[in-house]
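task queued by scheduler; priority normal; single chain, no ligands, no partner chains; default sampling; output format set to structure tokens
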Amino acid sequence: MIRELSLEHFKCFDALTLPLGALTLLSGINASGKSTVVQSLALLHQSVSEAEWSGSLLLDGTSVQLGTVADVIDKVNGRRSFGIGVAGANFSARWRFGNPEEPSRDAVSVPVHALAWSDGRTLTQHGSATATAYQGLLPTTLDGDAARALREVLRRLDHVGAERLGPRETYKLGSEAWHQTVGVHGERAPGAIWWFGDERVAPAMCRENTPPTVRAQTQAWLDHFFPGVVFQIDRVPNASALTLGFRTSNETNFHRPQHVGYGITHLLPLIVAGVRASLGRMLVVENPEVHLHPAGQAAIGAFLARVAACGVTVVVETHSDHVLNGVRRAVRDRVIAPDEVAIHFFRERALARQKRVAQVVSPRVDAEGNIDHWPGGFFDQFDRDLNYLAGLGE
């Protein structure tokens, strides 16, 4: 599993080394670097899955559209290349992308300029992609267990973005391979249920008194978040498309998605990704709280903690203190161990430099769900507003 991410001269970071837990929460003000962390992981997935043999980082693809090299290189420090690295218990891969001597700032893909690889036994330095055959951003000569595992983790990484697909008349039905992930907009989730509905779900992710299959457990979790809601998926005759219907009561028929709350269609992809996630996989979620009531936001925090406890690396970008509190409750309930939870609070780079403080602060949670440190701006707006209303401050 990936347990560390490093960035160098990438977007707003001169240098960043970020420890990842089984569950990692990214919080902070807007434009402070949270999305950059998510995008770096999504870029690795996009490049491995869409340009497997190219030996380049794909900046403009299906999951992420970041423009050109000029858009992602750290402009403050005037660099001509940038680095992304990941590491786990038995491996480390640190890529340098771009050509410092002849930069192509208008390119939408960036070749590997250098790679430092360690598998716990040897450290290998590799040259540019033009001189090396690559598969999944790693040289084809790297065929050990660690290299194969990393390629697979990146290929099957599930990235669910903040801009999820809302209610639709139909949903595309692609191949089984296309539905291995739910898609950055959640657009592949109905098809994933269609193809893999009979797959068995990890026991720890199963609701009680429900068959341990993807379809049944997706339904059970949907009912957990929205009591009484039932979904139905049908194939459109003579078309590669599906319809999705919801029933909110036993006394009604199934409705089109447009006639139920947005929270239902926005949450469905997260549930599908969570129940399908297996040991060693990675799930990256942006703003899971979108269109959810506060109770639902807390519940999705607890749900993602349960997913992480099953051996899945979960990274969550959130602005919701309810999501945080759902995770804290999961720790207190012994769903996930406190040392498996990493929390990172991001400050804007210029402000951090001006005040000479760290750009990223990492509070810790204890076994009772308590947070050891609350830096200014870290989910403190509720208390600040109450103090203001009580006449105790601004």
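post-processing summary
- The first strand starts at residue 4 and ends at 10.
- Residues 51 and 69 are 17 Å apart (CA to CA).
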